[in-house]
Amino acid sequence: MTPDERRRVYQEIEDDLRRRIASGELAEGVKLPSEKDMAAQWGTSRPTVRQALAGLFADGLIDRQAPFGTFVRRRPTITIQWATDRYQRRPDGPTSPFARDAQQSGVTSNWQWNTRRERADEPTATRLHLDTGAHVMVTNYVFTADGSPIQLSTSWEPYNLVGGTPIEEPEGGPGPTGVIARFDTIDVRITEVVEIVRARPATADERRQLGMPAGSWVQAVERTHLAGERPVETADIIRPADQAARGYRVAIP
């Protein structure tokens, strides 16, 4: 088989599988035939099949799970409801916006975290209106939906505000979750939330933590909670771009 013939065959295999995945004929989580079986089906070699699968893997359509085989990639079903009321105080139900999003989507949410005290670098200090080197409480999160990692977040809070209070560590205590509800418990009333959303290629560490293929992009959200003019928390939130949606409902006076 000439190189041109091999290229034509692996492109036909890739296009066929891509079409069947897009139509749902090959549903999420379905195991693909082995490379040997596909090679026999198409009358070609395993390296040619491997080239076809490489294109699907690069686009995030399939997962390789050694030694079990190759599967159509499952996509978390959580839907983010980004509206003007997302960051309101909620007397009933989950106080975490992420938990509320998951509840509305009918999936089970969870998250893991690690909290420590550090000195703020210049960018973090600027966002929190602190001096560079001031102490902050830093929390790293990995959020999951139905057990699948779907979001990463790093949050910073001024130690001179939360240190020595019941919310010094954001998670694991007896109080509520969610920034607004937590700060209400120490009589700091958050009045505004600002978000800046950017798109960029995922880093190697982000791809590893979120199970993303090479070449994937993420939405990077820079979020800040303010009490009046004072920033009381700022966070960097990372979600796979192909699973993230941002929508805003704006009232017109």
How would you describe the overall organization of this protein?
The protein is α+β, with helices and mostly antiparallel strands and 253 residues long. The model has no long low-confidence stretch (mean pLDDT 86). Helix 1 (3-23) packs across helix 3 (46-58) and helix 2 crosses helix 3. The longest helix has 21 residues, at 3-23. Strand 1 (62-65) and strand 2 (69-72) form a beta hairpin. A 6-stranded antiparallel β-sheet has the order 3-4-5-8-7-6. A two-stranded antiparallel sheet has the order 1-2. The chain is 30% helix and 29% strand. It has 2 domains: 3-72, Orthogonal Bundle (Arc Repressor Mutant, subunit A); 97-243, Chorismate lyase-like (Chorismate lyase, 3-Layer(aba) Sandwich). It has 8 helices and 8 strands.
Task: Set down the secondary structure blueprint.
Elements: H1 3-23, H2 35-42, H3 46-58, E1 62-65, E2 69-72, H4 97-105, E3 109-119, H5 122-128, E4 135-145, E5 148-158, H6 159-162, H7 179-184, E6 192-201, H8 204-210, E7 217-227, E8 230-240
Antiparallel strand pairs: 1-2, 3-4, 4-5, 5-8, 6-7, 7-8
Helix pairs in contact: 1-3, 2-3
